[in-house]
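Bug report (template v2)

What were you trying to do?
Predict the complex of my protein with pyridoxal-5'-phosphate.

What happened?
Run completed; filing so the output is reviewed.

Input:
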Amino acid sequence: MAKVPHRLYLTEEQMPKQWYNLRADMKEQPDPILNPATFQPVTEEDLYPVFCEKLAHQELDGETRYIDIPEEIQDFYKMYRPSPLIRAYNLEKALDTPAKIYYKFEGNNTSGSHKLNSAIAQAYYAKEQGLKGLTTETGAGQWGTALAEACSYYHIPLTVYMVKCSYEQKPFRKSVIETFDASIIPSPSDTTNVGRAILKEHPDTTGSLGCAISEAVEKAVSTPGYKYVLGSVLNQVLLHQSIIGLESKIAMEMLDEYPDVVIGCAGGGSNLGGLIAPFMQDKLLGRANTRFIAVEPASCPSLTRGRYAYDFCDTGRVTPMARMYTLGCDFIPSANHAGGLRYHGMSPILSKLYHDGYMDAISVEQTKVFEAATFFAKQETILPAPESAHAIYGAMEEAKKCKETGEAKTILFGLTGTGYFDMMAYSAYLNKSMNDYIPTDEELEPGFAGLPKIPGIQE
Ligand SMILES: Cc1ncc(COP(=O)(O)O)c(C=O)c1O
C-alpha cells in the first residue's frame, strides 16, 4: 500500500453535504431540556424568544439522522475546508511509539479554531429569519471571532460578551473581533442587570462562560429583533460540528484506516461531539468498538468530578435547564489559561454518552498541558491553542502506553486550533510562573449545593 501522506485533504466534491445528528442513533435520548418556570420539557416555541426558529428546531430534533447542509453554508465551508487529516509522523518518531497518530487540524481560518463551522450556520439561519442582530459570549475568544467573521459576511450586527480574564489576557482578540465590525464587552459588565448583580456579589471576579452567557441572553431578549447564539454545549452546535468527524471518517476510509481511540478536549463538548459523531454511530450500531476519551482541565473538571444533574446553562439562571455533568452553575473556575474549557457543564449529548459508559474522560493540570503543547509544536510545527493541547496530552499518553505494550493502535485526535493569542499563557509556562489549581472537594461543594430543585425530578 502507498505510504500515508503527511496531510490528506478531501476534494470539494468529497466534502460531506449533510450533517449527522448523533441523537438519532443513541439508544436513549438525553433527558429533555426543561423550562425553568414550568419544569416541563421546552417546546420549540418556548425557545423562539431566545433562538432563531430553525435552530430551535434543530435543538429539539432527536430523530432526523442526516440534515442537508444548505448550499450557501457548503460554499462558505469551501473557503476554509476541508481541513486536513494529518499523520503525526514526527510526533510518533519523537515518542518512539508503534501507535499511528492522526489529527484533524481545524485551526486554518482566522478564528483559529473549529468554531467557524457552527458560527456560519447560525449566522446563515439568523439572516434567513431576517434578524436585526445577534449576541453571544466568548471564552477564549475563538468563538467570538468566528461569529464576528460569520456575521460580517451576512452583515448582521453582533455584540460579544467576553470572559473578563480572557479579555485581559488576549487584548488583540478585541482588535480582530472589531475588524469584523462586532462590538465586544468584558464580562461581567455593568451593561446588564445580571452582570451588575454578579459584580455586586463578586466584585473581583475574573468572569466565566456561565456569566457571559447570562449577559448575552439578557441583551438579546431585551433588544428588539435580536437573538442569542451559543458556540458550544447545545445539540445544534454538535450537529454543525459533525462536519469534523464526517470528513475525518471519509479521509480515514481512503487510507484504509479506522481509529481504535478518538480523543478530544472538552469545554462545552462541541468539537469532541462533532469529531466522534460518525465513529460513535458505528459503536452504537455495533459496527466498531472505538474508545472515546474526553480531556478536560483539572481546574474545571465537569465530567470527571461533576454531578449528572439538571442545571442552568448559565450563572444568572436565565436559560432553560439541561441534564448534564455539571459543577453547578455558580461554580466560577480559576483563571485557567484554557479559557475555552472554563465552563461549569457539558453538552447533554456527551454527558448522556459518558453516563451510559460509551465514553471515558480524564482531567489534566495546565502545566502538563503546556508541556505537551510545546513538545508537539516542536515536532509538528503547529503552535496549538491551550484547549487543543489537552487533546494532544491525551493522545501522547495513549501513544506512550502503546510503547509499553507494543500495540500499534490507531489514534485520532482533534487539534481544534492555534494558540497565537495565548502567548501570555505560553510565557507564563516558559518562565515557570504558571501554577496548577485543582479545586478541593470542599471548594466544589457550594456549586453542587446550588443545583436547582425540581419537584419530583431533583429534590
Ligand atoms: C481552540 C478551542 N478548542 C476547544 C474549545 C472548547 O470548546 P468545545 O468543547 O465546545 O469544543 C474552544 C472553546 O473556546 C477553543 O477555542
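What did the reviewer find?
Residues 46-66+114-228 form a domain with the Rossmann fold fold (CATH 3.40.50.1100). Residues 113, 139-140, 142-143, 232, 265-271, 340-341, 385, 387-388, 416-417 surround pyridoxal-5'-phosphate (CB under 6 Å).
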